[in-house]
Design brief:
It is a single chain. This protein is mostly helical and 580 residues long. The chain has 27 helices and eight strands. The chain folds into two domains: 391 residues, no CATH class; 145 residues, no CATH class. The strands form four sheets. A two-stranded antiparallel sheet has the order 1-2. It has a two-stranded antiparallel sheet with strand order 3-4. A hairpin with a 2-residue loop joins strand 1 and strand 2. The longest helix has 33 residues.
Length: 580
């Protein structure tokens, strides 16, 4: 939604939000203002402590069997945990990661080293000229972190939620330190690695964004349908000081990039290591996080009144008994009990996710409509995301929301149900084949425009007015669309995608499989296409190839053809096995 807003405007917006964040951090250290809103005599404030509780110790919020002392308190922690964090979740599902990443203060602050020109660099040899030059450091897709970052981010998320319950919830100094530490980590990563490496590989919120965005958010833009070249979604961008025009600042820190095309990232990384753990385990973490308040205090008032944001001596209670269930105290230290709760619930929902996939495949098979493992996984992901959203907002934001008039609460509840249902309906039936067809259709239109079609064939419409399915149908039935023209169109589409770095050389054979079927182009023609591109535009393959040591078009073409044929051969059963 914000991808078309100018970078200058968003720069000012990010600065305003960042300064607001700094103000919140300062208020955690010194705040003479917000305690006035919680004072029982402030009748105009919905956040005031209820006078009957303030004056009558017998009508108090209890931690186990002990009444909490009620007195005016600073609202910084309540504002952060019960207002800002839930707002972020809502924004991601409705407006998409592209909205969030363009306003996120941490993402903004991680780019400070780049803006100051002080990023870490290394010496490399240019693959074409052989010259030694300096370049910023990026995290390789095939590096350990590139392959396993979801485990790292999930681990940080797991530890962060535990630290929140144990240290940070009600200790304002601890919360301020926590937020300042996050800022320093983001800046440090921005110095060590180029691009949005903090967002892609380290930020604990990134898996949450991945979950709630899904293949596409409710109001997010569709990057794959934009005319190329385009600066899409939350793609890194700068403003040329001479022309004032926006330019891409992408350094290919991640392929496929979540900020360039979120849906491509979703389908490509659906089976990435840790993806199921993130998706299915997150629902368990949401349930466990809110359930633990009850398991610890022995009642729900402790959570819903927001008493956890003002509990005294929280740090000193880390090794107190961690469970108090229906009047029975279980002597497991709180520091251990928290993580036991997380692990058990995450393990349960992780197992339920796998069961859901199997049951869906059994059901569709029984109905005579057997689906692929990927389709079953997508369906399960969609159901679990919706369940996570509804579960989160059954508890998140409630400590302040429950203080509002009933009509406000009912309106909020209705909005959560409607938004979650709309996202479920829009996402459930989405398939990878739809995305791929829509992605290729724009490039295919470009190739058809070169043919100068008879307007009568389009019945008064232009090629841009045709849907992706209509474009494919037109190609199939177009009179005089010879095999030579089909191959030319195929070559043009492949070249367009490689040039825009939408697909890599190594994955292009599988990526364009459906297009070859629709254009009636042979698999062998793909290799000829790559050789043609290598001969005419070698720079495109150098940029798109994962092997930068390739120096010339002939070497590129020969290596690519050999690699792709080898990959194809490895996917086909041998003739011996076939006979057997």
């Amino acid at each position: 939604m914000l991808n078309k807003v100018s970078e200058k405007t968003m720069h000012h917006v990010r600065w305003a939000l960042t300064l607001g964040w700094f103000l919140l951090i300062v208020s955690l250290v010194y705040d003479p203002i917000t305690p006035l809103f919680t004072h029982p005599d402030n009748l105009a404030s919905p956040f005031r402590i209820r006078p009957e509780i303030y004056l009558d110790p017998d009508r108090c919020t209890k931690i186990r069997d002990v009444c909490m002392m009620e007195q005016p308190f600073a609202m910084g922690a309540l504002i952060w945990w019960a207002m800002i964090v839930p707002a972020g979740i809502f924004i991601i599902l409705v407006f998409g990661h592209e909205f969030w990443r363009r306003i996120c203060p941490l993402s903004f602050l991680s780019q400070i080293p780049r803006a100051l020109g002080i990023q870490r660099q290394r010496k490399v040899v240019d693959p074409v000229t052989g010259e030694v030059r300096s370049e910023v450091v990026t995290i390789g897709e095939n590096s350990w972190l590139g392959r396993n970052h979801l485990y790292v981010q999930s681990g940080l998320f797991f530890l962060g939620l535990g630290a929140r319950i144990l240290f940070v919830n009600s200790d304002r100094i601890a919360l301020a330190s926590f937020l300042v530490g996050a800022i320093l980590c983001a800046i440090l990563v921005g110095y060590l690695y180029a691009g949005k490496s903090w967002c892609h590989y380290f930020c604990p919120m990134a898996p949450v964004q991945l979950i709630y965005t899904g293949p596409r958010s409710l109001m997010g833009s569709q990057a794959h349908q934009e005319k190329k070249p385009a600066i899409s979604q939350s793609m890194c961008r700068i403003v040329d000081p001479q022309t004032g025009q926006e330019q891409s600042a992408c350094v290919s820190c991640k392929m496929p990039c979540f900020d360039i095309d979120a849906e491509k990232n979703y389908w490509t990384e659906l089976t990435k290591p840790g993806r199921r753990l993130v998706q299915y385990g997150y629902l368990g973490m949401v349930i466990a996080f809110y359930l633990y308040y009850f398991l610890y205090a022995g009642n729900w008032d402790y959570y819903f009144t927001g008493a956890w944001t003002r509990e005294e001596d929280q740090l000193a209670k880390v090794f107190d008994a961690g469970f108090h269930i229906y009047g029975n105290t279980i002597p497991i230290p709180k520091a251990i009990a928290v993580f036991i709760t997380f692990a058990v619930l995450a393990g349960i929902t992780y197992s339920l996710g796998h069961i859901t996939e199997r049951l869906y495949r059994l059901y569709t098979g029984w109905k005579g409509q057997a689906v692929s493992a990927q389709r079953a996984q997508h369906v399960a992901f969609t159901l679990f995301t919706t369940a996570s959203f509804w579960t989160f907002f059954s508890y998140g934001a409630r400590p302040w929301l429950n203080k509002m008039p009933p009509y406000v609460v009912l309106t909020f509840n209705a909005a959560v149900i409607v938004v979650g249902s709309m996202w479920l309906f829009r996402t459930f039936g989405r398939e990878r084949s739809q995305y791929e067809r829509e992605s290729v259709a724009s490039s295919l239109r470009k190739q058809l425009q070169k043919l100068q079609l008879d307007p009568a064939l389009l019945e008064g419409r232009s090629l841009d007015d045709l849907s992706s399915d209509e474009v494919y149908t037109l190609v199939k039935v177009l009179p005089g669309f010879s095999q030579k023209l089909r191959l030319q169109a195929y070559t043009g589409v492949v070249q367009d995608f490689l040039e825009q770095k939408v697909v890599q050389v190594s994955s292009s054979f599988d990526f364009f499989k459906r297009l070859r079927q629709d254009l009636q182009v042979k698999d062998a023609d793909h290799f000829a296409t790559m050789e043609t591109i290598a001969a005419t535009h070698p720079e495109i393959l150098v940029a798109a190839s994962p092997s930068p040591q390739l120096h010339n078009a002939e070497t590129i073409a020969r290596t690519i053809a050999k690699r792709l044929r080898k990959d194809k051969a490895s996917k086909q059963p041998s003739s011996t096995n076939h006979k057997r």
